[in-house]
Write a structure and sequence with these properties.
Layout lengths: L3 E2 L1 E3 L2 E3 L6 E5 L6 E6 L3 H20 L2 H17 L1 H12 L3 H21 L6 E3 L6 E9 L2 E5 L7 H12 L3 E5 L5 H14 L6 E3 L4 H9 L5 E5 L2 H12 L5 E5 L4 E5 L5 H13 L9 E7 H17 L18 H16 L3 E5 L21 E4 L17 E7 L3 H8 L4 E2 L1 E5 L3 H10 L4 E4 L11 E2 L2 E2 L7 E2 L3 H4 E9 L4 E2 L5 E2 L7
Parallel strand pairs: 1-5, 8-9, 8-11, 9-10, 11-12, 13-14, 13-19, 14-17, 16-17, 19-20
Antiparallel strand pairs: 2-3, 4-5, 6-7, 7-24, 15-16, 18-22, 21-23, 25-26
Helix pairs in contact: 1-7, 2-4, 2-6, 3-4, 4-5, 9-10
Length: about 500
């Protein structure tokens, strides 16, 4: 029988108000990895109450004191890269090097947030009046609700929570229902670090638990990473409450531009990593590769050959490049988009939708396997398959003729604006892409994956309304107060107003 895990509320492991449970299953084998109590709106209310009660005492601590708890988490993460990385791979299907990288990224985020506690906070600015001091201070907003996805089940929770906690907020964490075991480890690390009761709380569950966080009058900030549909619903709901704030990162239809000045070795390797790492299940994965006509034929030949030999297999095998998709419903969705591409008349170059028995690893009959799907598409055609996010190894090659302006025009022809890359040895082309690509994360001569925590992470257009991750999350979880201090007995205003407050003779 699988081990049963509980919620973490107000410093205690509790079963919660409901009697319903759910299981986590390996997407590679179908093995049950654990059983979990399903959180209810009542559990969320209890968690929010605990976070609210803990807030005043937590915010009164110094940033450095708060960060000390995070340093304990950082060291625990560094010591558990192999073991926790394997748990990530078992539960979400990422191959093992990516599982370990997930934990390393979490450690990087915690390290950055904790280290930032000893750096300056706020800004000192000059006043127009010599007798005044002018500066800005940051204040925590209160209770932060963190709703995170399954594809980075350790890294993204810490992307959300590490800065929020160091800045003095308390947290209610609702992880993805597909990866509750990883979330349980996240909670265990906070518990072992000895955070005061109520500062961190976790409610496992489904959409009703997430909705309860969003709807709570006592949640001041909502951080969300996930689908565009859910993210826009959250942003709309939060917008109705002027006292609440939401930062949502919501996926993309990301593109890579390969110009006629590209190094094709760099181009092919970047495109393969961008398209097929995590089996295309990254919000920054590339689903469109826009290639200049002068190098298109050679690029297509080499990219197709690479897609044909991508090793799909056991995520715990060091030789695997791509593991399974996360769940059966998602495999059905990706397969339907592959079928849709055919129906829309594209020229299919690689179709590994249905893998042969010899490609599925031993014990993987219950897994959710799929291979790369690559096709050619007219960049001017109004095709659903080239405009809607698939979130799988589904890639369109688009040929263009002309200058970098034409390539960027194609690149920007999407409702999304998260990530992208340009491959070129011409710095002028790179600079044009830098200045005109409508994205929040841009790369040159690199894959469009691999964000670093000291940079902002988020997009524009349909891809987001803020930065719920990495360093810029500080803008979502704090308010800045502009302070002006008068050091004179007189009141003098920058606009020319003044008043002499002196009384009597000297």
């Amino acid at each position: 029988m699988a081990e049963r895990h509980r919620q973490y509320i107000d410093g205690e492991w509790v079963s919660g108000e409901g009697s319903e449970t759910f299981t986590s299953e390996s997407p590679a084998t179908g093995e049950t990895l654990g059983e979990f109590h399903r959180g209810t709106p009542a559990d969320v209310e209890r968690a929010v109450d605990a976070a609210s009660a803990a807030y005043e005492e937590w915010r009164e601590r110094s940033r450095i004191d708060r960060a000390e708890y995070l340093w304990d988490v950082y060291h625990a993460l560094k010591e558990s890269v192999d073991d926790l990385g394997a748990t990530v791979s078992r539960e979400c299907g990422k191959e093992i090097s990516e599982g370990r990288a997930d934990v390393v990224e979490a450690a990087h985020m915690v390290e950055w947030a904790a280290g930032d506690a000893r750096h300056p906070s706020g800004d000192v600015v000059p006043s127009e009046i010599p007798s005044k001091d002018a500066y800005m201070r940051r204040k925590p907003r209160g209770v932060t609700g963190c709703i995170t996805p399954w594809n980075f089940p350790v890294a993204i929770p810490y992307w959300h929570m590490a800065v929020a906690l160091v800045e003095g907020n308390t947290v209610v964490f609702k992880p993805a229902e597909q990866t509750p075991l990883c979330a349980n480890v996240v909670a265990e690390l906070f518990d072992e670090a000895g955070l005061p009761d109520g500062v961190f709380n976790m409610v496992q569950g489904f959409g009703d638990a997430g909705e309860a966080i969003v709807d709570s009058d006592d949640v001041d900030t909502v951080l969300f990473t996930g689908s565009a549909e859910v993210g826009h619903n959250i942003a709309t709901a939060v917008a109705e409450d002027p006292g609440k704030r939401a930062a949502c990162e919501m996926g993309g239809k990301n593109g890579i531009v390969v110009t006629e000045k590209a190094d094709l070795d760099v181009a092919v390797h970047s495109a393969v990593m961008s398209s097929f790492k995590t089996t295309g299940q990254r919000c920054v994965s590339s689903e469109r590769i826009i290639v200049h006509a002068d190098v298109y034929d050679e690029f297509r030949e080499r990219f197709v050959a690479a897609a044909e030999r991508v090793a799909v297999g056991d995520p715990l095998d060091e030789d695997t490049f791509m593991g399974p998709l996360i769940e059966a419903d998602h495999r059905d969705k990706v397969a339907k988009y592959n079928d849709l591409a055919r129906e829309e008349g594209v020229d299919v170059l690689v179709d590994r939708t249905d893998l042969g028995d010899d490609e599925i690893p031993e014990g993987g009959d219950a897994g959710h396997w799929i291979g790369p799907f690559v096709y050619e598409a007219d960049p001017d055609a109004a095709l659903r398959c080239t405009r809607e996010e698939v979130f799988g190894p589904h890639v369109a090659l688009m040929e263009y003729d002309g200058d970098i302006e034409r390539a960027v025009e194609i690149h920007n022809d999407t409702d999304y604006g998260l990530a992208g890359a340009v491959i070129s040895e011409d710095y002028r082309q790179i600079n044009y892409y830098r200045d005109h690509a409508e994205i929040g994360l841009a790369y040159a001569n690199l894959p469009c994956i691999g964000a670093e925590v000291q940079l902002p992470f988020g997009g524009v257009k349909k891809s987001g309304n803020g930065y719920p991750s990495a360093r810029e999350v500080i803008e979502a979880v704090t308010d800045r107060t502009a302070w002006t201090l008068n050091n004179s007995k007189d009141i003098e205003m920058a606009q020319g107003l003044s008043a002499d407050l002196s009384t009597g003779d000297d």
